[in-house]
Amino acid sequence: MRHKSNDRMMQIKDFVEKYYLTNRHSPSTREIAEALGIVKSTAYKYLVAMRDQGMIGYDGENVLTDKIEKANVELTSVAVLGSISCGVPQLEEEYAEEFVTLPVSMFGKGEFYFLRANGTSMIEAGIDDGDLVLIRKQSVAKDGQIVVALVDNQNTLKRFFVDEKNHCIRLHPENKTMEDIIVPECVIQGVAVKVIKSLE
After folding, report:
1. Is 198 annotated in the active site?
2. Bridge partners of residue 89, in order along the sequence
3. Which 3 state secondary structure label does DSSP give 80?
4. pTM
5. Which of 42, 125, 131, 163 has a Cα at 20 to 30 A from 66?
6. Which residue in the list 121, 137, 142, 197 is annotated as catalytic?
7. pLDDT digits (tens, 9 = 90+) for 75-113
8. 48-52, 68-72, 165-169, 185-189 — which is least confidently predicted?
């Protein structure tokens, strides 16, 4: 095989990595050729030469580099389902505003959704008005967990406690100026696990 240009190899490697990070899959040999202004057969020969030199992994279809391998993490798509009251319970409104992609390695596996915090009742737990709160969908909770509670078709985000002595549920706001919400029962729609803030 004739000598291959190191500059051209780096151009191919750079293009493949940028393409993968945008599209989450390798470009075809034709796409590489078109991007670099070379013919398809030349692009293929470069890929083989780069593989033989240990620059990339290449199986004839997919290209793998160190950068792609690090970026190739398992992802999950999570819906942003409107807002959740951090104050007086509000009527339940659930619709997908958008979808957010999250790495499973950071947030774990399970069924999740986002709610946008509305109000100030959870500020002492670090949840401010406008924050995105990641909720793990589940129907049970432990004492002290922050939950999405549905009470009389109204939902709210509060810290959950079972008052066995008085046979009721105490939904506790993390704001010293507000009082607990006491209800005979409620439906747990999920448990808060993460908060995403905007610093702007």
Report:
1. no
2. none
3. strand
4. 0.61
5. 42
6. 121
7. 777 888 877 776 544 444 456 778 877 777 677 778 898
8. 68-72
